[in-house]
Amino acid sequence: MKSLALAVAFAMLLSCRVFAQQACDYKVEILADGSEFEKEDFKWRMKATKLDGPPTNITGTAEIKSDGKTAKSYKPWNSAPISRQKTSNEYTPNLKPGSYEIIAEVSVQCDDGDKGNNKDIMEIKIKGENEETKAKKSKSENQEAVNNKINGKEQTPTSQNAMTTRSKQPTASEETDNVIQLNNKNNQKSHQLQATTYAIKQPEVVYKSSNEKAKGMIMAFLLTLSVLLNIILIWKR
Fold this sequence. Notes:
This protein is an alpha+beta fold. It is 53% helix and 30% strand.
């Protein structure tokens, strides 16, 4: 029995060594429907495919990184047999909004001649609150631009009115002419007032002269009457 067990173990080691010495080529792919997703819609898989060589055992790992930090990690296969291809389960990591990098790798137990396709990288973007914030900010900026345009239109008539007011303001020469005209008008009014005053006072002078003449005539009449009375009295004597 011991010899049989040793024979089986030796056969397994020999087969593994044969597999390891045989040349092969396996590749890994990340499967996702696009590169931008809503938070609840993102899902992905990884697939390993034999391009050349015999069947072998395969180990697959994957991780999702954000800013260099691992957000999620996976290990769909651990030394699992593969004859042609293998596909992992569907993953729905429920990531927060932001940018991420998916890195998937496989290793096989045969002599893989092209290890460049043993690793696959995909960059994705999860939309959500950040995108909504940007949309709100963009909408706010657009509304602010519209308000600025409206305010600009409202201020235009005011500016025009200010320009009209400035255009209506008299120049220095016009102000001088206005002062001269005002002085002339004041002089004319002063002359008219003096003439009116003179015209009002003139009858008073005439009136005073007539009274003086009347007084003189009365005095002369009285004097003449006195002389006549004296003559009559003398004559009667």
